[in-house]
Specification:
By secondary structure, the protein is mainly alpha-helical. It folds into two domains: 22-174, no CATH class; 212-278, no CATH class. The chain contains twelve helices and six strands. The protein has helices spanning 3-21, 45-54, 63-68, 70-85, 98-119, 139-144, 156-168, 196-210, 228-232, 234-243, 251-259, 262-270; strands at 25-27, 145-149, 152-154, 215-218, 223-226, 275-278. The strands form two sheets. It has a three-stranded mixed beta sheet. Helix 11 (251-259) runs antiparallel to helix 12 (262-270).
Length: 289
């Protein structure tokens, strides 16, 4: 056997081993759908009540209290039982509008993140959920774990990128999806659907850029310091400008200015020649302190 063939065979064995060890881990939910669940649409009311109970005014979640209240854990499981059974793909008749479908993917994503943290509580960071071979940071949590949406198993990565970003092309979703970490957008306790979702998305965008943890302007050092979310999804934000008929020549600065309240918009306009920098992402679990 020549060297080339040996190398090829060894490569195949290594790749196969990686795929086997990192094979998907399906997460199941053992619960019944809420008794008051509507027969012909999809309700997020039970999840909304839980968020109003356990999310504080700063958007942090009291995982410890939620974990200690087994009834509340069961209520989340019941909501996810509905997510497991229905989805815009498999039961489209329950999702009349595009916003109804988008709301499902956004809220179900957030609910599965919370469920995954509660199942492993106490947990310092979602990145502590490791795959046997951690190919990239967060691989175990966002890629390997699989969750059931309408009878079909998807990773959180797939839901975000293939179901939400690719299908809806609305950059504001990055201000609502919550990855269970400090640098994520805050958890929101209202879960509107249909036309009301537009109001939520717009408010979430304004709130995100208005938070100095996400957008900081330092005129003295000529810097604009942004959340890493703007770095990771820059194309989503500049493409959003183009879809709205706005110039994307100034990139992220133009996008932020397009949704920012007046004081921030003026500060951005005054920061001529400012350099954009990005903060490190804090993956610490977004728990109450």
């Amino acid at each position: 056997m020549n060297v080339f063939v040996t190398v090829v065979l060894m490569t195949i064995v290594i790749v196969a081993s990686v795929f086997f060890l990192n094979r998907p881990q399906i997460m199941t939910v053992s619960a019944n759908i809420p008794d008051d669940f509507p027969p012909d649409e999809f309700s997020h009311s039970s999840f909304e009540r839980l968020l109003r109970t356990y999310v504080d005014s700063n958007g942090h979640l009291d995982y410890q209290s939620w974990y200690e209240h087994t009834d509340a854990v069961g209520q989340l499981d019941s909501y996810l039982a509905a997510v497991t059974q229905y989805s815009p793909e498999t039961t489209p008749e329950r999702f009349v509008t595009s916003n109804d479908a988008l709301a499902y993917w956004l809220y179900a994503y957030n609910a599965y993140v919370i469920k995954s943290i509660l199942d492993r509580w106490p947990l310092e960071s979602v990145t502590d959920v490791k795959a046997p071979i951690e190919i990239v940071k967060g691989f175990g949590f966002f890629y390997r774990l699989r969750f059931i949406f309408g009878g079909r198993a998807y990773s959180l990565y797939t839901i975000e990128n293939k179901k939400i970003r690719a299908e809806y092309r609305d950059a504001r979703i990055h201000f609502v999806l919550n990855c269970g970490s400090e640098s994520c957008p805050i958890l929101r306790t209202e879960l509107p659907t249909d036309d009301a979702l537009e109001t939520l998305l717009q408010q979430a965008a304004v709130d995100f850029v208005s938070d100095e943890r996400n957008v900081r302007i330092d005129q003295k050092s000529q810097r604009i310091v942004l959340s890493a979310i703007f770095k990771w999804y820059e194309k989503d934000f500049t493409n959003d400008l183009r879809r709205r008929g706005l110039s994307a020549d100034q990139g992220l600065q133009a996008y932020i200015a397009s949704i920012a309240p007046d004081p921030l918009r003026k500060a951005i306009a005054a920061c001529v020649g400012c350099k954009i920098e990005f903060d490190d992402y804090d993956w610490t679990v977004n728990r109450t302190r």
